[in-house]
TrEMBL record:
PROSITE patterns linked: ABC_TRANSPORTER_1, ABC_TRANSPORTER_2
Source organism of the structure: Gloeomargarita lithophora Alchichica-D10
Entry-linked CDD domains: ABC_cobalt_CbiO_domain1 (cd03225)
GO cellular component: membrane
Pfam families: ABC_tran
Keyword Oxidoreductase included in the entry's annotation: no
Official protein name in the record: Polyamine-transporting ATPase
Every ABC transporter domain range: 6-224
Xref: InterPro entries: AAA+_ATPase (IPR003593), ABC_transporter-like_ATP-bd (IPR003439), ABC_transporter-like_CS (IPR017871), ABC_transpr_CbiO/EcfA_su (IPR015856), Molybdenum_import_ModC (IPR050334), P-loop_NTPase (IPR027417)
Amino acid sequence: MSVPAILLEDVGFGWAEGRLALQGCHLRVPQGEFWMLLGANGSGKSTLLKLLAGLITPTQGRVALAGAVGLVLQNPDHQVIMPSVGADVAFGLADLPPVLWAGQVEQALRLVGLWELHQRPVYALSGGQKQRLAIAGALARQVPVLLLDEPTAFLDPAQQLELAQQVQNLVRSTGITALWVTHRLEELSYCDQAVLLAGGRITQQGTGAQLQRYIHQHHLDTQVAWNEAPA
Ligand SMILES: Nc1ncnc2c1ncn2[C@@H]1O[C@H](COP(=O)(O)OP(=O)(O)OP(=O)(O)O)[C@@H](O)[C@H]1O
């Protein structure tokens, strides 16, 4: 079996003593696939992404990744910091020799369809364009794994599905692996596989359509907190 892009083996994590935000989590995401992670408020989605991004370390178990990760946050205003599109992507490459910057910036912006706007001020971008700029920042650093934490939280429905489609295309065209956290069932149509988190445990895995069906059949509301894993 080939080396997965993301591997969790029996992972647990507690923010506070005696209470685990994640427990017994097993996950194996093959390289070059687009996966989604779904769960109610407080189910542990952000905690899991923080573990994968290396911001916290597991209390139990093992996390292994194919390489560096790029993290895309809910609100692009928290990570897009330079005044223009091109400058923002170049900023993330500051530790590379400047001779490499131009090519990598152009390639990354072309992949997200923003090259024509590389001189545009960031304040003149739409919400969806800003999220694509944040994704370009990660692509320019040539990370093998992209983690997206509710990237559509601030987008209207049309931009929301457009971004999901664009990430699906990006995964197909570049071979990068993406893990996308969401509350929104309609986004599941774009992923290769999805997993459901409930009460800190991964309780279901399947295609987007299978997860949509499971959630409807069990009358789960992914916007609302359930403390227990569903039966
Ligand atoms: N920095 C923190 N310190 C203490 N507890 C935390 C911290 N971050 C999260 N938690 C707790 O860990 C549990 C899981 O939270 P987490 O933010 O991972 O859930 P989530 O599924 O991402 O929720 P949401 O959809 O609301 O973002 C919750 O009980 C939460 O209160």
